[in-house]
Every structure is written in structure tokens, then in C-alpha cells.
Write a structure and sequence with these properties.
The protein is an alpha+beta fold and 206 residues long. It is built from seven helices and eight strands, in the order H-E-E-H-E-E-H-H-H-E-E-H-E-E-H.
Length: 206
């Protein structure tokens, strides 16, 4: 798994993937928060952030009112992060544009999918017969159309739009989904490799 961050191009692509994924804005910077169950994955991202910023990344543990333990990391603010946050939140409101998407690299796409992706197995007569891959963007139709166009024109992947939870997300069928999983697979850490499972012995939605 190659997460070389020696160039600004690679650093920018990874940071964009994190911002499109679980990244949450905080003034000029951002933080990433996961449940304790995904601590290994979050620490993987923390290590990458420390390589990019060349400074320690702050980590804290939180407990919700329901007793759930959350882990949060907040990288040191660097000029590149400040610029990217400003581009994703023009006027303070999050807006995914083609200009922003063009900064992505395969590593950034893999992180975005690991953060916001999911898959469902469709069964017929008790046997799995199809696979559905989702990128759970939950943004406007216009933004999803921009994302779908980007993937089609730059990487040759076809996403379809589906309405969900009052907004939209992106969907792929079996053949295209397997191609996409092969594309992001080399950049996923061990803790997220379950997203790549397409074998018939997997019976639960993940």
C-alpha cells in the first residue's frame, strides 16, 4: 500500500479525500471522528496526517450521552489545509465542485470510499446473485451529478444516482462495483479490507 506524501499533489489528493469523507470543518481546519470500533482505521489516517504536516496530530476520546466512545483526531493546521477547507466551504457552506474533485488522487478516492462507502448483497432464493456498491454522499442532485461526471470522465467509472434520506447518493452494480473495488483495494488499510469482500459466503450487508 503506497501512501507516498512527498509531493504537494499527493498530499492534496489525500487531504481532499479526507475532507470529502469524515472530515468536519472547524474554523480554518478540520477534524476526523470515528467510533472506537474504527480506531485502527482512524490511527492509520492520523499517521498519514502527521507525515503531511510533519507535526503531531492531536487525539482525544469522547463519550456520548448514550455511552458510546468516539475517537477524534485534529491535524496541525498547514497552509494547504487552509486553502482546501476554504475551497470546499465557499462562504462557509459545504459545496462539492468539479474543481475540488479534480484534486483527488487514487489514495484520496480510497479514503473517501472507506469513510463513506458501503455495499449490499442481493439474494434470490437464499443465494447472493448481485452486489451493489454505494458512495453515501447524501448531497444535492447537482453535486452528485458533478461527482458522477468526474468519475466517468477521469477514471472511467459509471455511478448512478439514487434518492435516499431526502437527498441523493451514488450506486454501482455488480460488474462496475467489482472494478471499482479493485481500483481502491491497494490503498485500503487492513482494518477496511472487509469492504472488498465479494465472495458468496458473505451473507450480511456491510
Amino acid at each position: 500500500m503506497d501512501y507516498n506524501v512527498s509531493s504537494k499533489l499527493e498530499q492534496r489528493g489525500i487531504l481532499v479525500g479526507m475532507l470529502l469523507g469524515k472530515g468536519a470543518k472547524t474554523k480554518l481546519n478540520f477534524y476526523i471522528q470515528h467510533s472506537i470500533k474504527q480506531e485502527d482505521y482512524l490511527l492509520f489516517k492520523k499517521e498519514i496526517l502527521e507525515k503531511i504536516a510533519r507535526k503531531p496530530t492531536k487525539t482525544c476520546y469522547l463519550r456520548t450521552k448514550k455511552g458510546q466512545i468516539l475517537v477524534r483526531v485534529e491535524p496541525k493546521l498547514i497552509p494547504l489545509t487552509r486553502v482546501l477547507v476554504k475551497k470546499l466551504y465557499p462562504g462557509g457552506t459545504r459545496k462539492i465542485t468539479r474543481e475540488f474533485l479534480n484534486f483527488l488522487t487514487p489514495q484520496g478516492i480510497a479514503i473517501w470510499f472507506a469513510d463513506k462507502g458501503s455495499k449490499t448483497f442481493k439474494k434470490k432464493n437464499g443465494k447472493i446473485h448481485a452486489l451493489e456498491i454505494y458512495l453515501n454522499t447524501y448531497v444535492s442532485q447537482e453535486e452528485n451529478e458533478a461527482i458522477a461526471a468526474y468519475f466517468s470522465e477521469v477514471w472511467g467509472f459509471k455511478w448512478g444516482l439514487v434518492q435516499s434520506k431526502g437527498s441523493y447518493r451514488l450506486r454501482m452494480g455488480t460488474r462496475e462495483g467489482k472494478r471499482f473495488l479493485s481500483f481502491v483495494g491497494p490503498y485500503l488499510p487492513d482494518s477496511m479490507l472487509y469492504l472488498l469482500e465479494t465472495s458468496s459466503n458473505i451473507t450480511a450487508t456491510t
